[in-house]
What we know:
This protein has helices spanning about 15-20, 25-35, 40-55, 60-70, 75-85, 90-95, 100-105, 115-125, 160-170, 180-190, 205-210, 220-225, 250-255, 270, 290, 310-315, 330-345, 380-390, 420-425, and strands spanning about 10-15, 110-115, 135, 140, 145-150, 175-180, 195-200, 215, 240, 260-265, 275-280, 300-305, 320-325, 365-375, 395-400, 405-415, 430-435. The chain is an alpha/beta fold. It folds into 3 domains: about 15-225, HAD superfamily/HAD-like (Rossmann fold); about 240-345, Rossmann fold; about 365-435, Alpha-Beta Plaits (2-Layer Sandwich). It holds the Pfam family HAD. This is phosphoserine phosphatase.
Amino acid sequence: MTSQPEKTEQYFIIDFDSTFTQVEALDELARISLKNHPHREDIYKQIEDLTNASMEGRLSFTESLQQRVKLLCANREHLKMLISHLKKKVSTSFSRNTVFFKKHQDEVLIVSGGFKEFITPVVTEYHIKKENIYANTFVFDDEGNIIGYDKENPLSQEGGKVKLLKELNLQGDIYGIGDGYSDFQLKESGMIKKFFAFTENIERKSVAEKADHITPSFDEFLYINKLPRAISYPKNRIKCLVVGDIDEEALSQMKREGYNIRHQPTIEDKYLEEAGVLFCDDHHQPTIEQLEHAGRLKVIGCFGKVASKKLAEVAGQKGIIIFDDYKQNPRNADFIPKRVIAFMNEGKTHMSCNFPDLQPPRINNAHRLIHIHKNVPGILAQINEVFANHNINIVGEFLVTNPQIGYVITDVDAGYDTQVLNELKAIEHTIKFRLLY
Length: 437
């Protein structure tokens, strides 16, 4: 009997500033500590310029850090305020993936040129172990003022992340995730297997062009590495086609969710066929023939009323949900994107013009599956038979119908074979099937 090869250890080296959080913490600390300083705007600008020069590799990290700390004029009270602020600024795609951090707490390391005093209170709320946080430390005077930092710490020095990794001597495949030049240096040194340029908050072209992979969200990183994640498919991979007069606030909501926004003057087949979401208005709507070929399209947000009842019916028969509202209604800039997002995230169809109404509550620690099918008898029994055959526990199940379609949402316990998904898709009369989270 042959022995199984030992599983290779994996480690995930994650940056803090502009990666785990949306902001650069020292820049934010300056805004807090210099709030009443007469020349605060000039100093903010100096600190931001020093940060960017270092992150883009135009200035040594050591020089940048020394100059920024000198300009801060900060104390322990300012740090408390900063920590409260940073907890609200965790990157969206990190904050929704606490399950990953819980499952991989031994393999996740935060490695940052920032400071433990503000990093530790933020990341430990995500199951990251204190002993896996590597960062600089401030030096304080007797009054609690920041007067410097520990210059013996390798992370305070140029190439500090490389020096630290050499000291740690981790055995296994190491993946680096970050936005700055110091993160790329890990790849350049040959010490990590792959470097992922994280661009959810800022894209530094000089770093991104050298990366193994550009990851616009943490969901993307988890998806391509087949790791546990909160959502089944990264939103940056879902194209939102925008045609017509669409309010900018509506698009801002979709951008914040991470969708890939594509503007076009008209609804062309080639663009509609690759879109998962369509935003359109009274004067720009797809034809029935176009819907027949829009295989990826899941939802339409119409800023106006749908052109015909027939169009709405055909969309429903294709499993495409529509939310519409009169163009003159001032609420639609907020109403339509919120409805679209609620459907894409949780399967909610409330106030759709062509789907039966369903508003299931979110259930934690479960997977949610959507099954849209022709309204014929026996489909629910077949769905449940698939789960029964694989000994999968159903946590919650919701079915609604209209004359054309049936719409089932099933929440099941985590942990099942992908064959289950294939069997659900293969049920006769299935129109669309999707794993939400």
